[in-house]
Amino acid sequence: MMVQQTHPAADSPAPGRLNLLLSRAGWQTNPWVDRLPTLLAPLGVRSLVADTACAAERVIRSTPVHIAVVDLALPLDSIPGADEESGVRVLELLARQPNHPPTVVIKRNRTARDNQREMNAALRAGAFAVVDRPHAQRDLESLLQVLRRCLDRHYQSRWPQ
Question: Phi/psi zone of residue 126: left (φ > 0), alpha (ψ -120 to 50 degrees), beta?
Fold first, then answer.
C-alpha cells in the first residue's frame, strides 16, 4: 500500500492549486504515471499517486480530488499474488463523492468484448473519458490533452476553488 504525494516545488508560481489522483497498476517499471507529476508540478498540480484501490480510497476520503486518473487494472491491495482488479471500485467511490471529480479511465488493450465491457462500466460510473494505457510519448501527450479538456469543461478553464 503506497500513497505518494508529489508536491510542486516551493518556488513554483502556482503551488498546489489542483489535486490530481493518479492510480498506478504497477504493470511495468517507469510507467506513464511516474512522468505526469514531473510534467504537471510546475503548473501547480499536486499529484497524489496510489498503487492500490485501498490507497486511492484513503486519498479520496482525506483530500479533495479535483481530477482523477484511474487505471482499471489497479489492484485492490498490495498483497502478493492478489490479482483482483479494482479500478471500477475506485470509480464508484469517486461517483459517490459530493463534488464528483471528472475522471479519466485508463483501460488495457483486451478483446473487443472485454474492451466494450470495461468502457460501459467506466461510463456507467461517470467517467469523463476512457483512454488506452499510454505507451509512447504521443499517448502521454493525448492524455495531457484529455486532462486539459477536464479542466476546461468542469472548471471553466480555471483552477478549482
Answer: left
* 138 found inside a domain: yes
Q: What is the DSSP letter of 52?
A: S
Q: Domain limits at 22?
A: 3-155
Cα–Cα distances (Å) from 140 to 22, 27, 33, in that order, read 14, 16, 9
Q: Does residue 115 form part of some domain?
A: yes
Q: What is the pLDDT of residue 82?
A: 58
Q: Is the C-alpha dihedral spanning 111, 112, 115, 121 positive or negative?
A: negative
Rounded to whole angstroms, the Cα distance separating 110 from 107 reads: 9
CATH code, domain carrying 10:
3.40.50.2300
pLDDT tens-digit readout, 15-49: 458 999 999 876 565 567 788 899 999 989 999 99
Q: Total domain count for the chain?
A: 1
- Report yes or no on 160 lying in a domain: no
- 10 Å CB burial of residue 107 (0-12, 13-18, 19+) is buried
